[in-house]
Amino acid sequence: VDAGELRSFLADRLPGYAIPPAITVLDELPLTANGKIDRSALTALVADIPETTEHEPPVGPAETVLATIWADLLERPAVRRTDNFFTLGGDSLLATRMIARLRAEGVTDARLSVLFQTPVLADFAATLTLGEAAAPVPALAPDVAHRHDPFPPTEVQRAYWLGRAEHFTLGGVGCHFYTEFDGDIDLDRLETAWNLLIERHEMLRAVFDQDGLQRILPEVPRFTVAAVDSVEAMREQMSHQVLDVSAWPLFDARAVRHEGGVRLGVSFDNIIVDALSMMVFFAELDQLYHDPDTILPPIGVSFRDYLLAQDPDPAVFETAKEYWAARLPELPPAPQLPLRVDPALIGRPRFARRELRLPAARWRAITELARRYELTPATVLAAAFGEVLGTWSAQKELTLNLTLFDRREVHPDIHRVLGDFTSLLLVGYRQGAGWLDGARKLQEEVWRGLEHGEVSAVWVMRELARRNAAIEMTMPVVFTSTLGVGGEGMGGPSFAEQVWGVSQTPQVWLDSQVGEIDGELLVRWDAVEELFAPGVLDAMFGAYGGLLEWLAEGDWSGEVPALLPG
Q: Which of 14, 279, 346, 499 could disulfide-link 489, Cβ–Cβ 3.0 to 4.6 Å?
């Protein structure tokens, strides 16, 4: 037996984690006096094998370039040629950044879908062709002279703007995020910190005109935190408010004083900020609250600069359109969840939240298993969501609407910029031979979609509506993951504790949000309560929590537990 041929044979049939790092060929197996295999002798033999293959450094220019990039992105001191992108903690966000870095190094044929199929460094490097490194791209230059001129919205911002119209099904709402905090809050210090951030971040001074164009106001009045008589009144006023996007501000904060301190209500229209922006805001608010003289790092570029500089290669854009046009006939329908009322009959939807936390030890068990099976943790959670939806919809195939946070690294300060960088991706979840099979198919589809991300889900839904001669086409069940993008502000400011919250999005039935706080997995479902019969959402959410517990146990090849009430 040739060890190299055997390794190739295994690579064609097994995932990378199942291929032994070292293969030793023996003339015969050691036997005991009784003629049985001497396992202790084999164990001793394995212990004597030098770990040369497992710790083999990169070989050749392509592997060396790739290993350097992986070590940087995955925060590793060194990467070996046998290392696996997933087992090192890689995810789709890091993979997208890796592709951009490779192109800067002159590698023009790097593809996400190939990385998914060959995640071992040596195998992936073998698919790459090194060319001449591209000239360093200058950082995006700020256009200070025109910073207050109107500029167009992103496709998602325009969808949020249009979705406020009540003639759309489940319209009449803004994409709005509301949170309540409790603590011994000094409101004067809070106002001071908040106004410093308004001065610092342009999108906190943004408004929209009647044509949907946005612009930054050069000056605004001092923002104050309004006093409210009771928590109930504050929640009634703020939790489902629809802010007028033509008038500043597109956020709100109110407070109720009580014996234990202050209850603070904060709401943001997501037309100006995405989830990462909210984390940046709360992290910086926390710093300025504790020390108003804090000098925050400068921001040398604006959201306006970023949007106006986006100029996709026409050939790449056309290829993406061709991909999605070919995918349209194969795209499964939206989840057909058991509704008790036609969504078109609901005047103004009201959302309610369900929330759970998976303890750190259970969540760590899931993430470690995900790496072993070459899955990203976000894929595992999305696949579990798809499994629950498919069971409750009696569908083996359905389409999920994934929220992505797409900030291209065109400037060193881009991750400190506030704005709505959100994009959407439609992916089909197809139940497989087992849960693990379905999860792997989902991950492959996600990565193929990301590879053609120049075309957004908004365009795809418009094209679906056109082909079906429909007035509108929606994919009303959304999955949002902040895993991998989380920062210091994930849980809000440190001077207060999150105690209640809800979000709403136009034309959405159910939005599942997952993130990590203090090592625990946080899962939130915000849904239009009126759409479902009493108890349905509770049972579905309970089934999702039960499936997460099953995943933490580790037998992913086993039969999925029952997800419907007995």
A: 279
User: Does the pLDDT value for residue 52 go beyond 60?
Assistant: no
Spatial distance between the Cα atoms of 525 and 253, rounded to a whole number of angstroms: 23
DSSP secondary-structure letter at 84? Answer: B
* Rounded-to-integer distance, Cα 6 and Cα 11, Å: 9
**In the CATH hierarchy, which fold is given to the domain comprising 61-130?**
1.10.1200
Taking domain 155-290, whether its CATH number is 3.30.70.1400 is answered by: no
Residue 7 has pLDDT above 80, yes or no: no
Enter the tokens of residue 547: 């499936």
Residue range 494-519: mean pLDDT, rounded? 95
505 has pLDDT over 50: yes
What are the strands of the beta sheet with 226-227, ordered from one edge? 226-227, 251-258, 261-269, 176-183, 497-504
pLDDT of residue 488: 62
Mean pLDDT of 48-63: 73
Report the 3 state secondary structure along 157-207: HHHHHHHCCCCCCCCCCCCEEEEEEEECCCHHHHHHHHHHHHHHCHHHHEE
Q: Which CATH class is domain 321-338+353-487+507-553?
A: alpha beta
Q: Which two tokens stand for residue 31?
A: 């036997």
Q: Which of 144, 141, 111, 140 is nearest to 128 (CA)?
A: 111
